[in-house]
Every structure is written in structure tokens, then in C-alpha cells.
């Protein structure tokens, strides 16, 4: 190192910040059997581990944040419609490598990140969010990130492509080789190292693109041509399954996997307030996201059960969780990926303590789930009286919850 000319050293530092910042002992022992593809003396981690570089993209479990743009934090007045305590940038730094969100067409004709309806939770324009993720990719040149966007208002690929271009993130977009557009499902996925070397470190799935899809944006992949999902409408931790719910044309998991479809586990629980109103079950999330392989409803067990049930060394490629920082969920992915010690992760910042202390005082008064019950009764009573019909109930109860949630600061972020 010391004999490198200063300019070469600077270049090396800018290329491999993580190697130089992390302990090398384990990395040194692996160089003999797995030669590093880079010119550095020790292997550079890919997605937080040197062991993942040589693995194919579809031979890795990518931990994902469900509804990653919809926050339950100060920016949304702690909306109970929020699914995450921390934003996508913080999630990526903490090890999350799959970001899912819903995209709606807003009243001014822009693609907007909205939860169910832009009146319930509007997280801003898709373009601004993509630009922030691009910024993270700029700063983290050895990481591969996957996006999964729900096309709620059935917008064409060209609308998404325009926004991807304007945000700048399309420079990182990966297009499968000899792709006939987004409808090709049998892809021989490259290794993480190949994606990193080509600097095509962003894989994008959209659910779904209206057909016919244009070939102008072949990196926008139709999710259900490539991915199948387990059920997403779970209301009890004991009812997670490994069954195929949607995606592809197969009726069994085995045929879907042999057809090259990538499995996605939906691993989050809703609290069903009324048949129409479901909110993320935040109070149970420590158990839900636990890496435990024995507890019913735990993330570790769900992963282990599915890989066992599907057989033939099947791998869960994607997982979506709510409140990803709890568990922490990425621990369960590390275990199935065989990653003993992840490198380069940054823990979430703690929530300001003055607010947390104030909130704890209020919580003692209300206790456990009392605020939920009070909110439902008041919100429904109000909506029924004012509107005298059920149609508006869902919307008004959600709004009511947002206000109530702010006051009570239910389940705030990690407290200092
Ligand atoms: C997936 O990666 C593991 C660990 O490196 C390896 O043993 C296995 O053969 C790989 N599977 C495939 C299908 O390449
Ligand atoms: C997340 O928050 C940080 C700190 O406020 C900010 O710099 C970053 O741009 C945010 N990222 C997203 C995706 O909103
Ligand atoms: C469109 O409206 C949304 C709010 O619904 C706002 O966040 C966004 O900045 C607007 N975009 C333009 C281009 O005016
Ligand atoms: C499912 O069938 C439809 C209609 O035949 C076809 O367009 C689509 O590509 C198929 N999807 C997969 C994943 O094979
Ligand atoms: C989830 O959806 C499936 C299929 O549509 C349905 O059979 C099941 O009852 C639903 N579960 C809940 C808890 O609503």
C-alpha cells in the first residue's frame, strides 16, 4: 500500500472505501479459494459481504422493505398507514436491498408515491424518491438494489421510463440480455460482481405494465412475468404460508420455480380494524421479523419452512417486511445467505429523546391497544353520522387515525 503513488492510492480509496474501512481477517483467508475480481489486495464486499460477489442474483435472498416510501415518522405525523419507521436511504444503508412502493397518478398528472390513495398518505413524486436512491447508488458502488413498484393506475412503461430518465437512476438500470422486452421470463441472472462491474446495479420490476409493453425501456420488467408471490393478505402470524398466490401462469410453486420464476415471500401482518380497513400490525413486529427458526410466525421460520417445503435447494429470492429495522429483518436474510458477518452497514439513527420521553408519559395513560379501539369507534361513529353511508367510512377512519396516531405517537421509531 505504502509504495503506491499518491494518485493510485486516491483512486483505490474512492473505489474501495468499504474494504479499507472493514476488518480484513476473514477476507484474507478466502482469497486463496476465491480470487478477488478487483485489483485490491482483499475482496470487496458485494451487498455487504465478499461471499456474495460470485453468487448469481437469483441465488441470494434480498431482504426488502414493504411499502418502503410510506413512513410512520414525523414526516407523516406518524401516520398509522405508514409501514416503515425509516426511509429508503436509511434502509439501504442498514442492509435492505429491495424497495417496494405503490405508484399512483396524482391529480396534476405526475407519478406519485401514494399509499392506497393520495389523500391517505402521499410520499411525494416518484422522481424525487428515485433521485434519492440514485444518490445512494452513486455513493455505494458495490451494491445491487432491486425496486418493485406497484403500478396502481395502470400507467404505460413510457411514463415510468421518462421519470427514471429524469431522476438519473436509469443509468444504473439492468436490462436482461437479448431481452425481447419485459415479457421474457427465463433470464440467466448474472452474479452480483457482474452487475457491479457493468455498473448495472438496479433491477426494476413493475406490477404490472399494460401490454403491449414498448421496447424503449426494456429494463422495466413486468413483475409477474419474472416473480411469483406468496399471499400478502395475512392477518394472523400463524397463517403465513409458502403457497403461490400470484405471478406467472403456473399453478404450483414447483412448476413456477422450474420455469425460472423468482419466489417472493410476503412476510407482514395486518391488523384488521374493519373488513375494509387494514393497517400494519406494528405492535407484533418484533416477533414477526424475528430471525427465530422455531417461533410460529417468525421471519426465520417462514424462510426455513418455504425452502424446505419447495425442496431442490429452492431459494427465497425476495422477502418483504414492514418496519424492517425490527428483528432486524436483515439478520434472517444473512442467515439463509450464509453471511456470518456483514460489513459496511450503518444502523438507523435514534429518534430524538425529548419527544420519546414526552410520548412515554402519554402512553402510560392510554396503554396497549386502547387508542386503536377508541379511534375506530369515534372515527366510524363520526363518519356514519356525517355521511350516513359506508362508502366514506374507510377514508375518514384512516384520516382520523392519522391525526390520532400523531397525538399518541403510537409505536414511534427506536427511541434514544
Ligand atoms: C448458490 O450458492 C451456493 C453458495 O455459494 C452454492 O453452493 C450453490 O451451488 C449455488 N446454487 C446455484 C444454483 O448456483
Ligand atoms: C432519508 O432521510 C435522510 C435524512 O433526512 C435524507 O438525507 C434522505 O434523502 C432521505 N431519503 C429518502 C429516500 O427520502
Ligand atoms: C403534483 O402534486 C403533488 C401532490 O399531489 C406534488 O407533490 C407534486 O410536487 C406536484 N408536481 C408538480 C409537477 O406540480
Ligand atoms: C402467461 O400467459 C400469458 C398469456 O399467454 C403470456 O402473455 C405471459 O407471458 C405468460 N407469463 C409467463 C410468466 O409465462
Ligand atoms: C386472502 O385471500 C385469499 C384469496 O383471495 C382468501 O381466500 C383469504 O380468505 C384471504 N385472507 C384474509 C385473511 O382475508
Automatic annotation (TrEMBL):
Residues 23-43 are annotated as: Disordered. GO terms for biological process: lipid metabolic process. Coiled coil: none annotated. The keyword Acetylation does not apply. InterPro entries: PI-PLC_domain, PLC-like_Pdiesterase_TIM-brl. PANTHER family: PLC-LIKE PHOSPHODIESTERASE, PTHR13593. Keywords: Signal. Residues 1-21 form the signal peptide. One of its GO terms (molecular function) is phosphoric diester hydrolase activity. This is PLC-like phosphodiesterase. Residues 27-43 have a biased composition (Low complexity). The keyword Signal applies. SUPFAM superfamilies: PLC-like phosphodiesterases.
Amino acid at each position: 500500500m505504502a509504495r503506491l503513488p499518491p494518485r493510485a492510492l486516491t483512486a483505490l480509496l474512492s473505489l474501495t472505501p468499504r474494504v479499507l474501512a472493514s476488518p480484513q481477517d476473514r477476507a484474507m483467508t478466502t482469497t486463496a479459494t476465491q480470487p478477488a475480481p478487483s485489483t485490491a489486495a482483499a475482496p470487496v464486499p458485494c451487498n455487504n459481504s465478499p461471499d456474495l460477489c460470485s453468487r448469481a442474483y437469483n441465488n441470494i435472498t434480498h431482504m426488502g422493505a414493504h411499502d418502503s416510501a410510506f413512513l410512520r415518522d414525523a414526516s407523516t405525523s406518524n401516520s398509522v398507514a405508514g409501514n416503515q419507521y425509516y426511509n429508503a436511504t436509511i434502509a439501504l444503508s442498514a442492509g435492505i436491498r429491495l424497495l417496494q412502493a405503490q405508484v399512483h397518478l396524482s391529480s396534476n398528472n405526475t407519478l406519485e408515491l401514494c399509499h392506497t390513495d393520495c389523500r391517505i398518505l402521499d410520499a411525494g413524486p416518484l422522481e424525487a424518491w428515485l433521485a434519492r436512491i440514485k444518490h445512494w447508488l452513486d455513493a455505494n458502488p458495490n451494491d445491487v438494489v432491486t425496486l418493485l413498484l406497484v403500478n396502481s393506475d395502470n400507467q404505460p412503461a413510457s411514463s415510468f421510463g421518462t421519470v427514471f430518465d429524469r431522476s438519473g437512476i436509469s443509468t444504473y438500470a439492468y436490462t436482461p440480455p437479448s431481452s425481447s422486452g419485459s415479457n421474457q421470463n427465463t433470464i440467466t441472472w448474472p452474479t452480483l460482481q457482474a452487475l457491479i462491474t457493468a455498473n448495472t446495479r438496479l433491477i426494476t420490476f413493475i406490477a404490472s405494465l399494460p401490454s403491449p409493453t414498448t421496447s424503449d425501456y426494456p429494463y422495466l420488467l413486468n413483475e409477474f412475468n419474472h416473480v411469483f408471490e406468496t399471499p400478502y393478505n395475512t392477518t394472523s402470524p400463524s397463517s403465513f404460508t409458502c403457497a403461490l398466490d400470484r405471478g406467472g401462469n403456473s399453478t404450483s410453486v414447483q412448476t413456477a420455480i422450474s420455469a425460472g420464476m423468482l419466489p417472493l415471500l410476503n412476510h407482514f401482518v395486518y391488523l384488521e380494524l374493519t373488513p375494509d380497513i387494514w393497517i400494519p400490525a406494528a405492535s407484533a413486529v418484533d416477533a414477526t421479523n424475528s430471525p427465530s427458526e422455531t417461533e410460529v410466525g417468525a421471519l426465520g421460520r417462514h424462510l426455513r419452512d418455504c425452502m424446505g417445503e419447495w425442496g431442490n435447494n429452492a431459494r427465497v429470492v425476495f422477502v418483504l417486511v414492514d418496519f424492517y429495522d425490527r428483528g432486524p429483518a436483515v439478520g434472517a436474510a444473512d442467515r439463509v445467505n450464509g453471511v456470518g458477518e456483514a460489513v459496511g452497514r450503518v444502523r438507523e439513527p435514534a429518534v430524538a429523546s425529548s419527544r420519546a420521553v414526552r410520548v412515554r408519559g402519554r402512553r402510560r395513560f392510554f396503554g396497549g391497544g386502547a387508542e386503536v379501539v377508541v379511534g375506530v369507534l369515534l372515527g366510524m361513529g363520526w363518519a356514519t353520522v356525517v355521511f350516513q353511508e359506508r362508502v366514506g367510512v374507510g377514508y375518514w377512519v384512516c384520516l382520523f387515525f392519522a391525526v390520532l396516531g400523531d397525538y399518541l405517537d403510537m409505536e414511534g421509531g427506536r427511541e434514544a
